[in-house]
Design goal:
The structure is a single chain. This protein is an all-beta fold and 266 residues long. The protein is built from one helix and 20 strands. The C terminus is likely disordered.
């Protein structure tokens, strides 16, 4: 009769091949160690968070998720990572990219999946957007695992959420034919729709970043870059990118850069 006891040997993950770039943005970042000459990047594949040392050709793995990861954000100090997953009861893990150990787990705030996440400029708060019908927007005290504020984000899919790094109570969401500008006040979120006016077409917005306290920049499906002040569109750089899938970091952009139609890559 065959022995049905479990073997003493166990499988150990040695290498993860590939990279999840489909239907998700903000999916790869340099960690703080990259600035120390270590060349580390963090990304995800399926349900695994991967920290890859480019120079040493070594990987470390975060295995705290129970389903596929679809969103990722890097803490301003560039060591802590937040990842969000899909599933019936999706959750967010905040983990240390150096030790790949869990720091905090954020549960109960979303349904179906966590489509986008972003840390505040001071690193104390985390914003997240769900895949439910209302694409719920939550702001978390991530250290305590507690939702501080929650509201309906938009009826259409939201692709990105980012805090203004200069104003910790101001954040922006964007997605299918919309962009919204939010102000966090206590436990409430007040949103204003972006006013496109006649300067730009109402089109799908893929990503957002900031150039100063009052200025925001968004990348569009057509490859244009829109410049905003408050919630009003100021100007458009036509054809800033050849293809529509734009994902950028513009925190250090200035208005003159837009005038020259520069392409900036970090």
């Amino acid at each position: 009769m065959a022995d049905k006891t479990a073997p003493e040997s166990q499988l150990r993950l040695e290498w993860v091949y590939g990279y999840r770039g489909h239907q998700c943005r903000g999916n790869l970042f340099y960690t703080a160690r990259a600035g120390e000459g270590q060349g580390e990047v963090v990304y995800f594949v399926a349900g695994v968070g991967v920290v890859y040392d480019v120079k040493e050709k070594k990987q470390k793995f975060f295995l705290g998720h129970s389903d596929d990861i679809i969103s990722l954000a890097l803490h301003p100090e560039k060591r802590l990572v937040a990842t969000g997953q899909v599933g019936k009861a999706p959750f967010i893990c905040v983990w240390d990219s150096a030790t790949v150990e869990t720091v905090s787990i954020l549960q109960g705030g979303h349904e179906r999946g966590v489509a986008a996440i972003g840390f505040s400029g001071d690193g104390n708060l985390l914003a997240s957007v769900g895949l439910d019908d209302y694409h719920t927007l939550n702001v978390w005290d991530w250290r305590k695992g507690r939702v501080l504020a929650s509201t309906r984000g938009h009826s259409d899919r939201i692709f990105d959420v980012q805090f203004n790094p200069y104003l910790s109570n101001f954040l922006v969401t964007c997605g299918v034919k919309h962009v919204k500008f939010w102000t966090l006040c206590g436990n409430s979120l007040a949103g204003k729709k972006g006013i496109f006016g006649r300067r730009g077409d109402l089109q799908t917005i893929l990503c957002v970043a900031f150039g100063s306290e009052e200025l925001a920049y968004t990348g569009t499906l057509s490859g244009d870059v829109y410049k905003w002040k408050g919630h009003t569109l100021l100007s458009v750089v036509k054809g800033a990118h050849k293809f529509g899938w734009v994902c950028h970091g513009l925190q250090r952009w200035h208005s003159e850069a837009l005038g020259r139609q520069l392409r900036v890559h970090y």
